Predict the 3D structure of the following.
Amino acid sequence: MSVDQATVRRVAHLARIAVREEELGHLQNELNAILDFVEQLADLDVSGVEPLTGVVPMELPMREDVVSDGHCPDKVLANAPDAEGGFFTVPKVVE
Amino acid sequence: MTKLTQLTLTQAREGLAQGEFTAVELTEAYLKAMEQARGLNAYVLETPELALKMAKESDERLATGDTGPLEGIPVGVKDMFCTQGVRTTACSKILDDFVPQYESTVTSHLWRDGAVMLGKLNNDEFAMGSSNETSAFGPVVSPWRRDGDEAPLVPGGSSGGSAAAVAAFLCAGATGTDTGGSIRQPAAFTGTVGIKPTYGRCSRWGIVAFASSLDQAGPFARTVNDAALLLRSMAGYDPKDSTCVDRPVPDYQQAVGASIKGKKIGIPREYRMDGMSDEIDALWQEGAKWLEDAGAEIVDISLPHTKYALPAYYIVAPAEASSNLARYDGVRYGMRVPGKDVVEMYENTRAAGFGPEVRRRIMIGTYVLSAGYYDAYYLRAQKVRTLIKRDFDLAFAAGVDAVLTPATPSPAFGIGEKLKADPVEMYLNDVFTVTVNMAGLPGISVPAGLSADGLPLGLQLIGRPFGEETLFALGEVIEEAAGRFPVEDLWWRG
């Protein structure tokens, strides 16, 4: 499978990465080189094989349903590019 | 003071215990060496004040005898580990001047045990790379050069700063992370020892996430014994990482020097790739001979799905990365580039913040997870991963204790040499190491010889799950037989 420039544009948008028109061709070539490389997986018969979900056989641990952390708004906001009145700010989302 | 920095971690520990020098003196010697080595670009942040403060506290504990196993030992930390109050960037522009409000579990274990932090070490951006050339801080220059040639070489990656710093005597040991070979490949390129432990052995909490089902932390050191000491401190249960395994951490040092008599070592025929160079092949055979001479039994084995590991990795790792890196949105931390609405702000921020390799991998990951492609790519790759793991399971079930392979297909290459090629050529560096992450197994890279042009070459040993002790025992046999490969010409000091 290979991607065309429209697909590159769509994927970039899904990934929320702005791409300039003149970068599309270059990106298309790079992505297709990688997709060509992974194409060899199609040679393999994987029927009846379960997908691997964890490498170490273990049950996910449970813990008490209690608050274990928090009450530190200053720490949470310490690295925000723009924080105001104890909140993160973003451009207007709803008109 | 050079002498102090050239001690192994083990020797430094003895010297401190016997009062031959103080932790402050040892730390000062390293800080001086770091200052003289800025041209190598191994450190992206030096923390001399913190280092001296920690060293002073170590000296106080050394005076009272209330010491930890790494008391007063100066170490470097890969910039993928969050360090409280100390800038952490994953060597990406997108994290800007991020200062963590918390400490990663692995580094907190080091400080608990008395280690001293010298600073943060360079790596490929978000650990995506095999040469340390994708770092936003620029490439690391290896302390190694080819015989009679001053061309700058890569230290490997992604933990290139860690490998270069350990090899160039800029720290006694360092932390690394390994998602597809990022500890073992740079260790091989720099003549250092690097181990990626079993998935779940070290906590991932507080480590910048790349591909969560593959990422593991591990140490770099100048000897097998030093690596054993570091891993013992770094490993251990942490309820904050639900994949971290609750089992006791052995005293790995006890395994160094243990007999390997009767150990069954598998030589996988599928690793003898087309076009493998004679010197890599010869090194591999010599390694098998050393282990045999020490009493191990060498057996040929087959790991038939080996060739599918790298393509499957380049689906699984980018898919997980695209999901993990969704958090860099210009809202909670890091840089922000304005836009006319929130989506444009995200897009502009991420376009400006991510370098080309990271962008490429996020886009591949987004594509293989997108509607209509998930089954053909991601699901298939996870099934292939089951087959790769099964290959190893069958070998271990047949009595194999460890698998011996070359660590890399070649010695280190020049800075810029592979950047023009298509991305896949760079990916091929990890062809021998990536299977180990896919199966969640432990793997160690031990220096084993020099190439025709005088560069280090490493051998890799792959163990059973939680078989790190066997790897340290076997690694020590290789170190004893091959000798060590310290950098002899400290040319960067001018």
